[in-house]
Structures are given as structure tokens and as C-alpha cells.
Amino acid sequence: MLHIKKLNLDEIREIYNAYMHEAFPPSELRPFASMEMLYNKNCYPCYGFYDETDSLCAYAYFSCTENGKYALLDYFAVKKDLRGTGIGSKTFPLLRTEMKDRDGLLLEVESVESAEAEEEVNIRRRRIAFYERCGCEMTKAKSLLYGVDFNILVLPIAQPVPEAKVVLHELENIYHVMFDDELYKRVCHPFIAE
Fold first, then answer.
1. How far, in Å, CA of 151 to CA of 107, rounded?
2. Where is the N-acetyltransferase domain (predicted)?
């Protein structure tokens, strides 16, 4: 039986050092100091998912504003040896329960339309389909972040899926916490798809 636990800073660091370098390419992995800074501002809730022996199976790291009603999934991964076993889909009901005070969770997924190769199109479609099977819904909000085109999904928790302008407002607020003003201006371009 899988259970969820909110992680303290030492546990976040331990998972970062032990597992995240394998799961994410260097270009996508923020420096730990950035995570620590957000955590110390009360804007980086992180969760581990453990089996009945208390062994880590998966983890989810979120960015948020201090009092915001939404959190943005920053990193999510199942340990390498457990991928494809169904653990990933079991984490979402646990997140909904654990984060019940939030209106919902935001997720960025690379857009299918911007993929250059058929293999990448298939990978992105599978990722979107996985999140939709877990209860997430596609919105019309999008983001161009570091030159990468993202669609924004919402996992509703306490409220139904909001209008795209609400999603966009929440996303912009979270980006302003994640990035200083100069970096925000250079790399973040949230918008609503026509």
C-alpha cells in the first residue's frame, strides 16, 4: 500500500542527490540552492511516496505562492526500477487528499504541436494521456518557458477546472516566485491559446 509523506529539506536534498540526476536531464534540473530558497519561503512543498516497508517509490516537488490556491508540479518521477508498474497513477489520489486545501494542481507538459520528431510526438502524447487518466484536464493556458512550448493541465481538487484566465493568473504568480524579475522577463511567456 502506497502512502504519502511531506518531505523536510534534508529529505528533499537526499532525493535530489540520489535520484533526480538520473530522472531529469541537466538542462531541466534546477540547482538545489534554488529549491532550498523556495522551500525557506514556504513556496516549495515536496512529497515522497513510500511502500509498506517505507521505501521511496516516487516523489513530487511543487512550486507555489505562499498563500496561493494552486501549486505547479515542478518535478515528478517514479524511481527507475519501479517505472511501468502503475505506481505513478497511484500517487494522484494521494496528492488530492494531501493537498485538499488547494483548489488544484497545475502541470506543464510539452506541447505535441511543437515536437519535431514522430518519436517525440508519441512520448508527449503518452505523457498527456497519463495525466488525463489521473484526472488532469487540459486548459487553454499555455506557456513558452525557456523557449519550450508547454500546455497547462489542471488536476482539480477543491474546485472544478477554472477558466484559462484564472489558470494563467495563478501560473504567472507562481513563475514570479520561481524566477527573479529579470529572469521572468527573459524566459517566461504565459498566454492563452486562441
1. 8
2. 2-162
Written as nine digits, the cell of 64 is 507555489
What whole-number distance in Å separates Cα of residue 9 and Cα of residue 13? 6
pLDDT at 52: 97
Nearest Cα to 172, choosing from 194, 133, 146, 145? 145
Residue count of the chain: 194
194 has pLDDT over 90: no
* Residue ranges per structural domain of the chain: 3-192
Mean pLDDT computed over every residue of the chain: 96
Return the closest-CA partner of residue 32 out of 9, 11, 13: 13
59 three-class SS: strand
The residue-averaged pLDDT of 165-186 equals: 94
CATH 3.40.630.30 fits 3-192, yes or no: yes
| Strands 46-50 and 3-6, bridge-based pairing | antiparallel
6: left (phi over 0), alpha (psi -120 to 50) or beta: beta
